[in-house]
Every structure is written in C-alpha cells, then in structure tokens.
Amino acid sequence: MTDDGRLLAGRYRVGELIGRGGMSEVHLGTDTRLSRTVAIKLLKSSLALDPAFRTRFRQEAQAAARMAHPTIVRVFDAGEETVTDTSGHDTQQPFIIMEYVDGRMLKDVIRGGALESSEAVRILEGVLTALEYSHRAGVVHRDIKPGNIMITKSGQVKVMDFGIARAISDSSTTVAQTTAILGTASYFSPEQAKGELVDARTDLYSAGVVLFEMLTGRPPFRGDTPVAVAYQHVSETASKPSSINQNVSPALDMVVAKALAKDRFDRYQTAAEFRGDLEIAASGKLPIHKQSEEANLFGTPPPITTGTELAFKQLSEDQRMVRTQRRPPAIWVWAGILSVIVIIAAVMFWVFNLAPSSDIPSSSREVPSITGLTFEDASAKLADRDLSATQVPEPSATVEKGKVTRTDPPSGETVAPGTYITVYVSTGKEQVTVPDVTNKPIADAQAAITGAGMAVGAVSKENSPTIATDVVLRTNPVGATAVDSGSTIDFVVSSGLVTLPDLTGQSLSAATDILQGSNLQLTANPKPDTSCKQKPNQPITSQSIAPGDVPQKSTVDVVYCSG
Ligand SMILES: Nc1ncnc2c1ncn2[C@@H]1O[C@H](COP(=O)(O)OP(=O)(O)OP(=O)(O)O)[C@@H](O)[C@H]1O
C-alpha cells in the first residue's frame, strides 16, 4: 500500500489506498488546512472524459456537500485535478473529499448471512432517516445498495454517494455501462430498469431490496446478467422473506412487500411512512395496510432464473397460468400480452443494441488468484475483470504484512461483473501476550503458554534457595510481553538445589549468616579442633559437604579451629 502523496487542490494530501469500487479508488487523506483525516474518492479518469459528466458531477457534489446529517457521509469538497498521463496528455480527474468513516460496508456485513430482524430494522431505519433528510433537500440518491451504506464501529448507519449515480446516468453512458459502473442491477427499481424517470420512491424501492437482503442474506432477484435481474424487477414477484428465513415476522413480510411494489403509487410514498411501518412491524404489530393487499403483493416464490431465456420461459408460463386459472375478460388478456411484448422488446433492445455496443461485457467472471499481492496490485487485477475490491485486515501467521491472504469469494469461483470481492490483507502475525507463569509447576506453565497461542521452548534449570523443584522462576521473553502468535517461549525452572560456598576460613558466626542467606543450616554442634594453632576468629577448617550444588535446607557439619 503506497501513499500517493499528491496534494489535491493544494490542500488534500492523498494517502494510502483503502478501497476500490466500480467507479473509483478511495484513499485515506489529510486536509492539510484543517489537519483532519478525510476519505478521498478519486473517480476513474475514463468517466472524466465526458464533459457532460464533469459538469453534472460538480453540480451533484455541490448539492451533496450541502447535506449535513449524522446518517449521511459528509461531503466536504469536490473538484478536478489535472493529471498528466504517461503519454504527456493532460486529463481531468474528478475527486470528492468525504468524511472518513471507520467502519464496515453493509455489503460486507451481509456477506456473513442474514441479520437478526431487529438489527436489519435498526439499520434500515438509519437509511430511511438519511433518505427522509435528502428527499426533503430535493436529492434522490438513485443508487441505494449495501455498497453505499457503511456501519461505523459504534453501529451508526451512514449512507454515502448521494447524487453520484445521477451524474453518471445523466451523462452519455449507456444503461449497460451505468449498471456496470454502479454495480449489479440487484437494487434497481422497476422504473430504473425500464429507463423511466426516477423520484424519491425509487430510493424507497431500493431500500426495500436492501431490507429484503438483510433479512434473508440474498437479494430478491438474482441472475447471471444485469438484464436478467432487471427483467425480474420489472415483472417477477419477490418471495416472502419469511419463505427464505422463517425468523422473519409476517409484519416484516408485509413491509417488504409494500416497499417492493412494482407500481410506485402502490409503494411507500415517503421515507417517513416506510419508517413508521417498520417501527410498527418491529413492535410485533401488523402495519395498517391490509392482509388482502399483502396477498396481492406477494406471489408464490419464483424460481431463480439463470438467464434471459429462463426469464422469458417463466414469462410465457405466467401467461399460460393467467389464461387457464383466472379466466379474466379477453381485453385484460390482450393488455397483459401487449405489456409482455413491450417488456420483451425493451429487454431485447437492451441485450442486442446496448450491451454489445458498450465495452463492458455482461458474462460472468472468474475470481483471479491474488494472494501474496499488495492490495493495490490485487485490486487492479480485480478491476481488469470488472470486479471491485474491499479491503479487510486480518492477522496471518504465514503471509507477510501488507500482502493479500485470501479473498471471499475464493479464487476460481465464478461471479457476475461488478461483484465486490472482499480482499483480506495480512496485518502480520497476530500479537499475543506472554502469560505470567512464574511460581507455577512447569507442566501447568507449559499448558498456559500453548493455550495462549505460543510454542513451548527449552527448559533450563537454575538453583534457587526457596522455589520448589520444577517450579518456574521466569520465562524468556518474560510475562506480559507482546509477541507474535506462535513464538517460542523458553522456561527457567528451579533445580531444587542451592549453591553451598566454601566455608573454610570463615568464623562460625559468618558461616551461619552465609548459610542462612542460602536457606541452608549450620550444624548446631560444630566440632572443635584443638590440635590447630589458635587464631582469633576460630576459623572453620573443614565442612561435611563439599562446596557446590546441594539440596535446599541441607545442614552442614563443620570442624573449626578452637586451638
Ligand atoms: N468515506 C469513507 N470512509 C472510509 N472508507 C470508505 C469511504 N468511502 C469508501 N470507502 C471504502 O472504499 C471502498 C470503495 O468505495 P465505494 O464502494 O464507495 O466505491 P465506488 O466506486 O463508489 O463503488 P460502487 O459505486 O461500485 O459502489 C469501500 O468498500 C470502502 O471500504
């Protein structure tokens, strides 16, 4: 991870790369004027080639910068920087200076599976609060999806990228390109899929899709291509979330059904209305809109289509069912057939005219092997295959710090273009603390060390006047030191012996003191030697145990010169 080091607008220092999305690279940065940490989104320079996009982007970023709400990632500034490419040409690179959010993307949270209903409701309430505020300010988000919702470490919900989708879809990009840039079509409303005008209710549909995914762990419609997914948003009925996750209450099923109504007039009309029903559902009551309404909104769970052909097959089957089961008046049958033809024509137009003309293929991608690369190189390799990357740090015993350890989905798996790949980057070996095992028997101490993730090393013995045999005197490294997980810890244990010094030449009282300090004892009956030549201190002439290692508390007999 290299620091870019550039200064944008003479003020924002571009730091380490922290993420790469479908349309941008995101770096940590510093606002040098205010000395604060910011996130810097550098938009792909290919987008900046279109002057209409640049104008629209500036306007939208300015509108977003006017919004200040705790549930919205603050936009502080936006602009363009002239960049000289390798061939010496100057190009404009748009950038956005945002509040830095220390947290996780909702898409990464959902990757772990369905959330508890209460948590899903709490997060969606945050999203709806943000939408209520932005819709009042006249800003429609247009790209509400788990990849634009962050959850801070304290659990706060923050929605980002207001207005950016508008800048993209209003420039000369095709629908297929827009889909590829903005990610999958999973969160598109029916009106977006049909290329119609959008309004605040479009965001509420997408919020309904996000709620569905939080409750079930998967979006309501899946398919191999954006077209197959968009088709289902227009014409298929979503399953009840409770048919996928039985912990979801009927009340929440009803809220999701209303949010996902195909006709925007059947949906929640405002974010506040949606939030109100969520609160009612969370309290265990059924929202006011009636059960009969719910029955109309949900059909039987549709099979998961794998492509446009399957979608068409399903469509013709539906037609057959309409004819045989309900027997509606002929005029309705013909109206139904007509609308089906219109949809098929729209999809065919999209498939055969727009998608091939764009340089963004819609087939699936294989996740490449990127372990061992830096995040920067890995995300570039993913971007080559139209895949986005999110960085998640994790300790690794084997992979060097700063290098990719693994991905989710793993390499070799096939995914749709625009899919977010979680890229795990090594923070080096996990740090563990050496437990304090002094005064513990060696067997207990060794168990404590292995239990704390370290390896047992050499055991050496050392004399100790007081500590019992095979009890730990100290470790190396000593207790409370932080070390790499798996480090080897050496032990020094008591030998149960003590060093007896040479006592000859010492007076009896000096010898008593010396031995006491070593937890040894001088005999109570030292033997006098009268044959020697008397000296003033009556020195010891011999000792019963030779100097050296002796068991603790040994008693030493001595002979002293009494003269
Ligand atoms: N304000 C922020 N604070 C901290 N990290 C951020 C911030 N914005 C983005 N990121 C990180 O950068 C990554 C890429 O950002 P993001 O998904 O917004 O890019 P994008 O190009 O807008 O993607 P897309 O449009 O495909 O969703 C995110 O997954 C996230 O990890």
Offer a quick outline of the entry.
The protein is an alpha+beta fold and 563 residues long. The chain has 17 helices and 26 strands.
Can you tell me about this structure?
By secondary structure, this protein is of the alpha+beta class. It has five domains: 7-99, Phosphorylase Kinase, domain 1 (2-Layer Sandwich), CATH 3.30.200; 103-282, Transferase(Phosphotransferase), domain 1 (Orthogonal Bundle), CATH 1.10.510; 367-423, Trypsin Inhibitor V, Chain A (2-Layer Sandwich); 431-495, Trypsin Inhibitor V, Chain A; 498-561, Trypsin Inhibitor V, Chain A, CATH 3.30.10.20. Helix content is 35%, strand content 23%. Helix 1 runs antiparallel to helix 4 (164-170) and helix 8 (226-235) packs antiparallel against helix 14 (330-357). It starts with 6 loop residues before the first strand and ends with a strand. The protein binds adenosine-5'-triphosphate (ATP).
